[in-house]
TrEMBL record:
GO terms for biological process: porphyrin-containing compound biosynthetic process. GO terms for molecular function: uroporphyrinogen decarboxylase activity. This is Uroporphyrinogen decarboxylase (URO-D). Transmembrane segments: none annotated. Residues 27-323 form the Uroporphyrinogen decarboxylase (URO-D) domain. SUPFAM superfamilies: UROD/MetE-like (SSF51726). It holds the Pfam family URO-D.
């Protein structure tokens, strides 16, 4: 599926909130139930699709999937995002003991592959976007984010060896998701937000570029936080879309992003979309649409993942305003 043509085929502003967790309100399930069972998660994604009819469908964002498949210990609360509880890789010898996981067998990778298959079968005419972790972020989970940043200055060879390993993990998982029917992959690289442009290109951007070139497939890069200083370097990765957080002023950076590259964002997922008052939410949506009216390939979205207890009416406002219903 041609991602650009699929999103813009009806000559309207595409609306694709980064939503997954809010669907638990529609299926009366918990986040944990969805992250542990493919059928439950697909039921939730389907409920979101039926309620909002977004212009692309994503499954639930989970940054712990690849780490768990590597054997790292994971905190699994009932109604919050999963997190990695230990970061055991502190040297090259420990790194070399790790094995590349099989996406069809190891950890919960098979669960998300199965959800992707169900999405592909159920929603053939809508783009399906699957998440993979970014290489620098996976290294941060293996070694600890703070240690990884320090190592990027003090133990450069070690970090690059970790990154090469991370890329192989992500390649195989991405292959399985593409085979399952994903129309695009979204690389989640939040740990890279702390890097300078030069360090980003060395420790993240060049590896993201490798992934894009390897897959030769529609790829979106998402980095949380204020990435204003990284926009030119993010463009250099060759990704087909940039998903930018609410800390970035799209009005200020939009002309740094070439035509043909998706700009996805960037309402505040918490203070605006999840918990904002209706008047505030509508005002923010209209302001953002106005700011981006001269960019052909803008996709209205949240700046990051929307919390599970978000006001569903605020999500609905995104569609109603963008589609001229109000």
């Amino acid at each position: 599926m041609d991602l650009l043509n699929a999103l813009f085929k009806e000559n309207k502003l595409p609306v694709v909130p980064l939503m997954g967790f809010p669907g638990i309100q529609l299926t009366n399930t918990t986040i944990k139930q969805n992250l542990e069972d493919a059928q439950t998660q697909f039921k939730t994604i389907k409920a979101l699709k039926e309620k909002f009819n977004p212009d692309a469908v994503l499954y639930m964002m989970d940054l712990s999937v690849e780490a768990e498949a590597l054997g790292l210990k994971i905190n699994k609360p009932e109604n919050e995002s999963y997190t990695v509880s230990e970061h055991p890789i502190t040297n090259i010898e420990e790194l070399r003991k790790l094995k590349i996981p099989n996406p069809l067998k190891d950890g919960r990778m098979p669960l998300f592959v199965e959800v992707t298959k169900k999405m592909a079968k159920e929603f053939p005419d809508v783009p399906k976007i699957a998440y993979v972790i970014g290489p620098y972020t996976l290294v941060g989970l293996m070694t600890g984010a703070e240690n990884t940043v320090i190592n990027s200055m003090m133990e450069v060879e070690f970090v690059h060896e970790e990154l090469n390993f991370a890329v192989e993990v992500i390649k195989r998982y991405g292959d399985a998701l593409i085979e399952a029917g994903a129309d695009a992959l979204c690389i989640l690289e939040p740990t890279a937000t702390v890097l300078s442009p030069a360090m980003f290109e060395e420790f993240s951007g060049n590896y993201v570029k490798q992934l894009k070139k390897y897959w030769n497939y529609p790829t979106i890069l998402h980095i949380c936080g204020n990435t204003t200083h990284l926009i030119p370097s993010m463009v250099k990765t060759g990704c087909d879309g940039l998903s930018l957080d609410s800390d970035v002023s799209l009005r200020d950076v939009k002309f740094q992003i070439p035509d043909g590259v998706l700009i996805i964002g960037n309402l505040n997922p918490v203070s605006t979309v999840a918990y904002g008052k209706r008047e505030q939410v509508e005002k923010e949506i209209r302001r953002l649409i106005e700011d981006m009216k001269d960019k052909k390939h803008f996709v209205l979205s949240s700046g990051c993942d929307i919390p599970g207890d978000a006001d569903l009416e605020n999500i609905q406002l995104m569609f109603d305003v963008a589609r001229g219903r109000i």
